[in-house]
TrEMBL record:
TPR repeat positions: 253-286
Assigned keywords, A-Z: Repeat, Signal, TPR repeat
The organism's taxonomic lineage, starting at the top: Bacteria, Pseudomonadati, Bacteroidota, Cytophagia, Cytophagales
Protein name, as recorded: Tetratricopeptide repeat protein
Signal peptide: 1-19
Keyword Heme: no
Matching SUPFAM superfamilies: TPR-like
Coiled-coil region: none
Length: 376
C-alpha cells in the first residue's frame, strides 16, 4: 500500500512539473504563431510557479513576448508605459539565472539593443511633442538599458534645458562627463547653465578649467575664464596663463585673439590691436582677430565723430570738418578687416551689420544696400 502511494505521489509530481514546463513551451509556441495574448497568459503562469519561476528560459521569453507586443497593431493595446521596464527586468533576471554565457543570456544583448531603440523612439516622440517630463523619463530608461550610449543622456539634457529644469540638465551633463563624453559643447552648455542658475564663481571656474584641460584651444572657454579672472581681480593670473600658453604654442592664432580680448578689457587698445595682428600672422583665417580689429578701428572713428557732434556751431565751423575727415579714415581702416571677417564667416549677422554701417559712413550707398540684403 505504501509503495502504491509513493508511486502515485511521484507520478503526481511529474505531472505537475510537466504541466508547468508545458506552459513555457506553450508560450514559446504561441509566440511563434503570433498569438501573443495567449503566449503572455502562459508565460505569466510560468513566472509564478515554483517549478519554472527560476528558469532563465521563462524570463527570457517573458521579455521577448512583451517586447514584441510594443507597436503591434493587434496586441500593442496590452502594453503600457511600464512595459519597457518589465521587459528590462525580465532580461536582467534571465542573465542573473543563466550567467553571462548561458543559452538565453547570450541572446539578451541583442534584445536589449532592440529595446533601447524602441524606448529612444518613444522618448523622441514625447520630445517632438514638447512633453518634456515624459521625454526625460524615457531618455533615463533608455540610458538604463544601454548605460554606455551617450545619445539618450545628451537629449535628456536638451529636454531638461527646454523645460527650464537647469539643475537637472547640469546633472545630465555631469553624467556625460563621467561617461567620457567630454566635448567642448558639453562644457559650454554646463557653464551656461551654471551661469543661469547663479552658481558660485568657484563652481563655474572649475568647469572652465576642466574644459580647458580637454580643449586648450577653445576660444569660448578661454574668454569665459578670463571674465571670471577679471571679475575676481585676477587679470594678472589670466595674462600669465595666456603668455605661457602662447610660449608653448606660438603659432596658435586663437591664443593671441584671446589675449587681445583681455587687453581690451584692461583698456589697453593699442596693445590689443598689436596682438590681434599677431593672431592674423599666426592664422590668416582667424575670424575673431579680423572682426575685433574692425571694431577697434570703427570705434575710433565713432569717438572722433562724437567729439564733432558735441561741438557748438561756431567751433564745428572751425574744426568739425577736419574731425569728420579723421573719423572717415578710421572707418576706412576698419573696412578691410570686416570684409575679411565676412569672407571667413559669410553668415555672421554682426559682421554683415557692421559692413552696412561702414559702407553707409563712407557714403557707399549701393554697397550698403547690397550687403544689407543678407540680413533678411
Amino acid at each position: 500500500m505504501k509503495k502504491v502511494l509513493l508511486t502515485a505521489l511521484v507520478a503526481g509530481t511529474i505531472s505537475v512539473a510537466s504541466a508547468q514546463n508545458s506552459a513555457v513551451n506553450s508560450a514559446v509556441l504561441n509566440h511563434k504563431n503570433g498569438t501573443l495574448d495567449k503566449a503572455l497568459a502562459d508565460i505569466e503562469k510560468a513566472t509564478e510557479h515554483k517549478k519554472t519561476k527560476d528558469k532563465a528560459k521563462t524570463w527570457f521569453y517573458r521579455g521577448v513576448i512583451y517586447q514584441d507586443m510594443i507597436g503591434n497593431p493587434i496586441y500593442g493595446k496590452l502594453t503600457d508605459e511600464n512595459t519597457p521596464l518589465v521587459i528590462l527586468e525580465s532580461f536582467d533576471k534571465t542573465v542573473e539565472l543563466d550567467g553571462q554565457n548561458g543559452e538565453f543570456a547570450k541572446q539578451v544583448p541583442e534584445r536589449k539593443q532592440m529595446l533601447y531603440g524602441q524606448v529612444l523612439n518613444q522618448a523622441v516622440e514625447f520630445h517632438n511633442n514638447q512633453d518634456w517630463p515624459k521625454a526625460i523619463e524615457k531618455y533615463e530608461l533608455a540610458h538604463k538599458i544601454s548605460p554606455e550610449d551617450t545619445t539618450a543622456v545628451l537629449y535628456a539634457a536638451y529636454a531638461s534645458t527646454a523645460d527650464n529644469k537647469y539643475d537637472q540638465a547640469i546633472g545630465f551633463y555631469d553624467e556625460l562627463l563621467k561617461m567620457g563624453h567630454k566635448t567642448e559643447d558639453v562644457y559650454k552648455a554646463k557653464v551656461q547653465l551654471q551661469q543661469a542658475t547663479e552658481a558660485s564663481d568657484e563652481a563655474v571656474m572649475e568647469t572652465l578649467a576642466n574644459g580647458l584641460k580637454e580643449h586648450p584651444n577653445s576660444v569660448y572657454l578661454m574668454q569665459e575664464e578670463l571674465k571670471y579672472y577679471l571679475k575676481n581681480d585676477r587679470a594678472d593670473e589670466a595674462m600669465a596663463k595666456l603668455d605661457k600658453a602662447i610660449a608653448a604654442d606660438p603659432k596658435n592664432g586663437s591664443l593671441y585673439a584671446v589675449k587681445g580680448n583681455l587687453l581690451e578689457r584692461k583698456k589697453d587698445m593699442d596693445g590689443a590691436r598689436e596682438v590681434y595682428k599677431k593672431a592674423i600672422e599666426a592664422d590668416p583665417t582667424n575670424f575673431d582677430a579680423y572682426y575685433n580689429l574692425g571694431v577697434l578701428e570703427y570705434n575710433r572713428g565713432t569717438e572722433v565723430n562724437n567729439r564733432a557732434a558735441k561741438m557748438d556751431y561756431a567751433t564745428y565751423q572751425k574744426k568739425g570738418k577736419a574731425l569728420e575727415a579723421e573719423a572717415k579714415k578710421y572707418y576706412q581702416a576698419s573696412l578691410p578687416y570686416f570684409e575679411k571677417a565676412h569672407e571667413i564667416r559669410p553668415d555672421d549677422k554682426a559682421t554683415v551689420q557692421n559692413l552696412v554701417n561702414v559702407y553707409t559712413r563712407l557714403g557707399r550707398k549701393a554697397d550698403a544696400e547690397k550687403i544689407s540684403a543678407k540680413l533678411n
